[in-house]
Every structure is written in C-alpha cells, then in structure tokens.
Amino acid sequence: MASSGRLYAFDVSEKRPANFKPRLARSGLSNVHPQLLAHENDTKVKRLAGKADRVLVDAPCSGLGTLRRNPDLKMRQSPESVAELNVKQAAILASASRLVKNGGRLVYATCSLLPQENQQIVEAFLAEHPDFQRVPVDQVLAEQKIALSTGDYLELKPNLHNTDGFFAAVLVRTPA
C-alpha cells in the first residue's frame, strides 16, 4: 500500500492494540489505525460497511497448529471449548464480511488444523452468504508469483512445510 490508504487493525482485547503500537512505530508505516472494539458489531466497524477492499479475519482459534511449540495446548482444549470458538469464529466472519465492498476480498485465517475451525466455518459462511465465492488460494498465490500449491485453501502443515499449522481461505464479494 506504500503508506497510502487506511489500514485498520481491530481487536476486542485491550492488550493487543497497545502491544501493536511499538511494532507499528518500528515499521515506519503511517497509515495503520489500531482500534479497540467492544464486540464484532461495534459502531466503529458498522461505519465501514461495504467500503473495504480487503479484510483479514485472524480468527480466535484453538491454536492447535502450534502444538510443536506449545504441547500443553492439547490439555487445554476440549470438544466443548472448540465448539465455543466455532460460534465466535462464525460470528466474527459474518460481521467482518459486511465491511467488504463488491469485488473486495475477505480472508479467513487460523493457526489451527481442525476442519471444524477452518473449512467447516468457511463452507457454512458461504452457504449463508451467496454474495461471496471462494477463490482458490492456488490462483491467488500464482497471481503473486508464489510457487506453492495448496489447492482451494492455504493449509500449512508442520510435517510438510516445516512451519506451524496455518489455514486461510480467500473469499470475494460478487456484485448482486
């Protein structure tokens, strides 16, 4: 973006925007605006409805993609805690989708390997939002001249990619 336009960094945790400020200062970027939200339907979000070219949802998740660095996570997660996260993930994705303008992209990402936090959330969202379509991640990466074949979704796996486990889906809002 070359420090042009506006980049909003929304979060509901007071700590994250505060911790972001020193990193932002080091980056030299002048167009990033960290904002604390009360919830996913905060008025700060509502006023941007249909105006964003790109929206990234870095969804709260189980973090099970980071097990090799955080093996204790498996003891702190349960089917019930993942089900609670699924409700939040779906609500945040639906709320964030309202920001995207026609032709704009919505990226949903987690550091989880669980289908119920990833593909299932995206597929349920698409079923409820016919104005969005999935864009194969292979296509997006090819446009950026990145030689990584992952299919419809970005799925980085520790055993294959020598990284933590990550997931991302790219969705585009199509004109009605």
Describe this structure in words.
The longest helix is centred in the middle third of the chain and has 19 residues. Strand 1, helix 1 and strand 2 form a beta-alpha-beta unit. Helix content is 35%, strand content 24%. The chain is of the alpha/beta class and 176 residues long. It folds into 2 domains: 36 residues, no CATH class; 132 residues, Rossmann fold (3-Layer(aba) Sandwich), CATH 3.40.50. Strands 3, 4, 5, 6 and 7 form a 5-stranded mixed sheet that branches. It contains 7 helices and 7 strands.
Could you name the key traits of this structure?
176 residues; alpha/beta; Rossmann fold; 2 domains; five-stranded mixed sheet; two-stranded parallel ribbon; 7 strands; 35% helix; globular
Brief write-up:
With 176 residues, the chain is an alpha/beta fold.
One letter per element, helices H and strands E, the order comes to EHEHEHHEHEHEHE
Q: How many individual β-strands?
A: 7
How much helicity do the residues have?
25-40%
Number of alpha- plus pi-helical segments = 7
- Based on CA inertia axes, which overall geometry fits? globular
Class inferred from helices and paired strands: alpha/beta
CATH superfamily of the largest domain, called what?
Answer: Vaccinia Virus protein VP39
Number of separate domains: 2
Residue stretches low in confidence (pLDDT < 50, at least 5 long) are: none
Integer average pLDDT: 90
Strand content range: 15-25%
Which CATH C-level class of the largest domain is it?
Answer: Alpha Beta
CA-based gyration radius: 17 Å
Straight-line N-to-C gap: 28 Å
